[in-house]
Automatic annotation (TrEMBL), chain B:
Membrane-spanning ranges: none
Keyword Lyase appears in the UniProt entry: yes
GO terms for MF: lyase activity
Official protein name in the record: DUF126 domain-containing protein
Protein keywords: Lyase
Species of provenance: Amycolatopsis acidiphila
Positions in coiled-coil regions: none
C-alpha cells in the first residue's frame, strides 16, 4: 500500500452511483481489491469468465441475487463456469433438494445478470478467444492459467465475486499478471530427460503440472526441453494441475507458448532450474488408491475438448466398459462431438456424458464407487477431499484398458524413465 | 508476550486461540462448510479452523475459495482471523462480501516472513487489531 490509486472520471462517476447501484457496489469491491494489490489505476477488460455460479451455500447466492435486485447487468461478453447441476440431465446429480434448489437459483441469477449460459470451466474451447495481449477478467483457476499462458491474454488470479464485479463494471485493478514485470518466470523445469513417449501423453502433462505447482507455488514456471509438438490438451492438463497443486496463474513453455519464443524472453539467466527426470513419484502422489481394484473412470477435468472426444471415440470402439465411465464436457463441445460422430461410440461403450458441471464438485458418482481412475491431475488432487474417493492417475489408454478390464491396467513401459 | 506489526488486507478485530498451519491451504476443495480441513494431502487434515486465528504461509488453488470463505463466515464456521505472508485477493474478496452482506468482519493480515515465524512459534490466545492500513497482532 502507500501507492495512490488514481481513478478515472468514469470510475468516480460509477462510484457515485451514476451507472446504477450494482455497478457502484461492484466498483467499491474492485477499488478495495486494488488498494490491497497496490494498484495505481484500474484497467478496462474485454471479457469476463464467471466462476461464482458454482453453489457453495447461501453467501454466494445472496451476493448474486443482491446484484440482480440492484439491476446489475454485465458490460462485457461474459461466459459462465460450471454450475452445481447438469441442467440438461437433471437426474445425474444426487445432491439434496435444498442444494439443488440453491444451485438452480444461482445459475438463474447469473443468467439474469447477462452471463452466457456456457456452464464450462474451459471457455477457451468456445469460439470466442481473447486476443494476445488483451486484458480480461477470468476466474476459475484452470481458465485463468490457460488464458494467460496459452492465449497470451492477461488476467490476474480472480476469484468468485470479483469476476462478476469486473463483468458488470468492465474494470479491474492494474496489478498482478496484468503487468509485464509479474509475467517473468520464477522457476525453470528442464524436461529434456523425460522420455518423448511419456510427454506425448496428456496425463503426463497433468503430473508435470502438479510438480510445477509444487515447485513454483504462486510463481511462474517455465518449461524447457519438451520440443514443440505440444498440444492444447496437454497445455490444458498442465495448467489445471499447476493451478491446483500450487497457485500458478501463468506458465511458459519455451518454443510453444506465445510469450516464450526463447528462454531469455521470459527468464533471467540465473533462474533456479529443476531437472525433471522421473514423473512416477508425482504420479503416485496423485494416486491415493493402493492395489488394482477399480470402480469407475472419470474423464474431462477440465472439460473434455473436441480432440479428446475424437481420441476417446477411437479408443472406445470395440469392447464395452465394465465399470461406470463419466465424461464431463460443455454443452457446446458435446453438440459438436455429436455432430462429428465422436459422442456415439463413447456412449455405445457405456460412458455417461455429463454437461454443465463436473464429477468432482458435486455428488454424481454412486457412493458405492470408492476407487476412481482419471487422466486429470486436477481431478486426482481434489476428488479425495471433495467426494471421498481414492484415485488412480493414468494415461487415456491406461484408463480405457482399465475400464474394460474392471481393474487397474498399467502400461509398464510408459512411466519408467 | 510479543507484539507484531503487519499490513491490513481486510480490516477487523478478533481475539482467539492461534492455529498454525504447516502448509498452504485452498479453502475450496481444502475445507468443508463446517470449517474443517478436508484436503487429504494437507498435514492438518481433520483440524477445525472455526473461531481460530489461523496463521498459514499462503493460500493455494481454487478461485472458489472466496465463496467458500464467505459462506463459512456467514454460517459462523469460519476462522476468527487469517494471518498470511502474502496478500491473497481471493480470500480478501470472501471477507469483503461477508462484511458487505452480513456485517461480519474477518480480519486478514500480512506479516513479513520473519514476523510470521515469530507468530507461528507462539500458542494460545492472539489478538488481531487490523485498522484501515496497519495491523497489530498481540500473541
Amino acid at each position: 500500500m502507500g501507492d495512490v490509486l488514481e481513478l478515472s472520471e468514469e470510475d468516480k462517476s460509477m462510484l457515485a452511483g451514476e451507472a446504477g447501484p450494482a455497478a457502484q457496489l461492484c466498483l467499491r469491491m474492485i477499488v478495495a481489491l486494488a488498494r490491497v494489490r497496490g494498484a495505481r489505476r484500474l484497467l478496462d477488460v474485454e471479457s469476463a469468465h464467471v466462476d461464482g455460479c458454482l453453489y457453495h451455500g447461501r453467501a454466494g447466492l445472496d451476493f448474486a441475487e443482491r446484484l440482480v435486485g440492484l439491476g446489475g447487468r454485465v458490460a462485457v461478453p461474459t461466459t459462465s463456469n460450471v454450475g452445481s447441476l447438469d441442467l440438461r440431465h437433471p437426474g445425474v446429480v444426487r445432491a439434496d433438494p435444498e442444494t439443488t434448489a440453491g444451485a438452480r437459483r444461482l445459475m438463474s441469477a447469473y443468467t439474469a445478470l447477462g452471463c452466457s449460459p456456457t456452464w464450462t470451466c474451459a471457455p477457451y474451447q468456445l469460439t470466442h478467444r481473447p486476443a494476445f495481449g488483451t486484458h480480461v477478467a477470468w476466474a476459475e483457476s484452470n481458465a485463468i492459467v490457460f488464458v494467460n499462458s496459452v492465449l497470451g491474454a492477461r488476467t490476474d488470479r480472480y476469484g468468485d465475486f470479483l469476476d462478476i464485479g469486473a463483468a458488470i463494471t468492465g474494470r479491474v485493478p492494474d496489478g498482478g499478471l496484468h503487468q509485464d514485470a509479474n509475467r517473468r518466470a520464477t522457476i525453470r523445469l528442464d524436461c529434456a530427460r523425460l522420455p518423448p513417449a511419456l510427454l506425448a501423453e496428456d496425463a503426463a502433462w497433468g503430473v508435470l503440472g502438479h510438480l510445477a505447482g509444487r515447485a513454483a507455488g504462486s510463481g511462474v514456471p517455465v518449461l524447457t526441453g519438451v520440443g514443440d509438438a505440444v498440444t492444447e490438451d496437454q497445455l490444458k492438463a498442465f495448467g489445471a494441475a499447476a493451478a491446483s497443486g500450487g497457485g500458478v496463474g501463468l506458465f511458459h513453455v519455451v518454443g510453444v507458448t506465445p510469450e516464450a519464443p526463447t528462454l531469455a524472453a521470459v527468464a533471467a539467466e540465473d533462474i533456479e532450474t529443476v531437472r525433471v527426470e522421473d514423473l512416477r513419484p508425482m504420479r503416485d502422489e496423485l494416486s491415493t488408491a493402493r492395489g488394482p481394484g477399480l470402480d469407475a473412470l472419470c474423464l474431462g477435468t477440465p472439460h473434455f475438448s473436441l480432440t479428446e472426444f475424437e481420441r476417446l471415440a477411437a479408443l472406445a470402439d470395440g469392447e464395452p466398459f465394465r465399470i461406470p465411465v463419466y465424461v464431463t464436457t460443455s454443452r457446446a463441445v458435446l453438440a459438436e462431438a455429436g455432430r462429428l460422430g465422436f459422442a456415439a461410440p463413447v456412449r455405445a461403450a457405456g460412458a455417461r456424458i455429463v454437461v454443465d458441471t463436473c464429477t468432482y464438485i458435486t455428488p454424481i458418482l454412486d457412493p458405492v464407487l470408492r476407487t476412481v481412475m482419471t487422466t486429470s491431475g486436477k481431478w486426482a488432487w481434489y476428488a479425495p477431499g471433495n467426494i471421498g474417493v481414492e484415485t488412480v492417475l493414468g494415461s487415456l489408454a491406461e484408463c480405457v484398458a482399465s475400464a474394460r478390464a474392471g481393474t487397474v491396467v498399467r502400461d509398464g513401459a510408459l512411466w519408467s524413465s | 508476550m510479543v507484539e507484531l506489526s503487519g499490513r491490513t488486507v481486510f480490516a477487523g478485530e478478533a481475539t482467539a486461540d492461534l492455529l498454525v498451519l504447516d502448509a498452504p491451504l485452498s479453502f475450496w476443495g481444502g475445507t468443508d462448510s463446517g470449517g474443517t480441513i478436508v484436503d487429504g494431502h494437507h498435514p492438518q487434515r481433520g483440524v477445525s479452523l472455526t473461531g481460530r486465528v489461523v496463521a498459514l504461509p499462503s493460500a493455494r488453488g481454487s478461485s472458489s475459495s472466496s465463496s467458500v470463505l464467505a459462506e463459512q463466515i456467514r454460517a459462523g464456521t469460519g476462522p476468527a482471523a487469517l494471518v498470511l505472508t502474502e496478500p491473497d485477493a481471493i480470500l480478501m474478496l470472501g471477507a469483503w462480501v461477508a462484511a458487505e452482506l452480513y456485517g461480519l468482519r474477518l480480519p486478514i493480515v500480512v506479516l513479513t516472513a520473519a514476523e510470521h515465524r515469530l507468530l507461528c512459534a507462539r500458542s494460545g490466545p492472539v489478538t488481531v487489531l487490523a485498522g484501515p492500513e496497519r495491523a497489530t497482532i498481540t500473541a
